[in-house]
């Protein structure tokens, strides 16, 4: 089973709160404690997630009395792949793929490694095509194809 860790799941929740903030009060930051209260995620976990997201370039932090966190770019520009990579590291299904942090010792002689690379690339491409905006507003994925053509495209 391929499964994201809990912090990545929580990270998507934190980012969804910041995405709604971006849409409705662009430029207004939220404190870590406000994000924690809105999400129901502990303050310690929220702070850890925000630190990782900031290191990954997905959020910007401002210090001071009116400081807090904002998205670094529009939700339409934040890929699901970038979220996962910021919180878990490179996408690597097995040790056989090039992006693996712990490469397989028999990779050079194994006939499967190139095939796993194709699978890893396909999944990475699918995750790169999905955005934070898609996660918070997925309704266009459930409309008939002819209705999708009539809808405005994400910028």
The tally of domains stands at 1
- Low-confidence segments, given as residue ranges, are none
Q: Which overall shape is indicated by the principal axes computed on the Cα atoms?
A: elongated
Gap from first CA to last CA: 34 Å
Architecture per CATH nomenclature, i.e. the level-2 architecture:
Orthogonal Bundle
Radius of gyration: 18 Å
Count of β-strands? 2
Number of helical elements: 7
CATH homologous superfamily assignment: Winged helix-like DNA-binding domain superfamily/Winged helix DNA-binding domain
H/E element string? HHHEEHHHH
Fraction in beta strands: 5-15%
CATH C-level? Mainly Alpha
Secondary structure: helix percent: 40-55%
Average pLDDT works out at: 83
Structural class: mainly alpha
According to CATH, the fold-level topology is Arc Repressor Mutant, subunit A
Largest sheet: number of strands, sense, barrel closure: 2 strands, antiparallel
Sheet with most strands: strand arrangement:
1-2
What are the defining features of this structure?
155 residues, mainly alpha, Arc Repressor Mutant, subunit A, two-stranded antiparallel ribbon, 48% helix
């Amino acid at each position: 089973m391929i499964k994201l860790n809990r912090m990545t799941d929580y990270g998507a929740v934190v980012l969804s709160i910041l995405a709604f903030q971006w849409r409705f009060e662009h430029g207004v930051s939220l404190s870590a404690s406000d994000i924690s209260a809105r999400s129901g995620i502990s303050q310690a976990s929220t702070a850890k997630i925000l630190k990782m997201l900031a290191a990954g370039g997905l959020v910007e932090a401002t210090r001071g009395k009116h400081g807090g966190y904002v998205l670094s770019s529009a939700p339409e520009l934040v890929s699901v792949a970038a979220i996962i990579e910021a919180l878990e590291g490179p996408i690597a299904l097995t040790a056989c793929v090039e992006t693996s942090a712990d490469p397989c010792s028999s990779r050079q002689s194994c006939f499967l490694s190139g095939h796993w690379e194709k699978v890893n690339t396909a999944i990475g491409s699918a995750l790169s095509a999905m955005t934070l905006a898609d996660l918070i507003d997925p309704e266009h994925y459930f409309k008939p194809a002819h209705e999708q053509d009539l809808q405005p495209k994400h910028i």
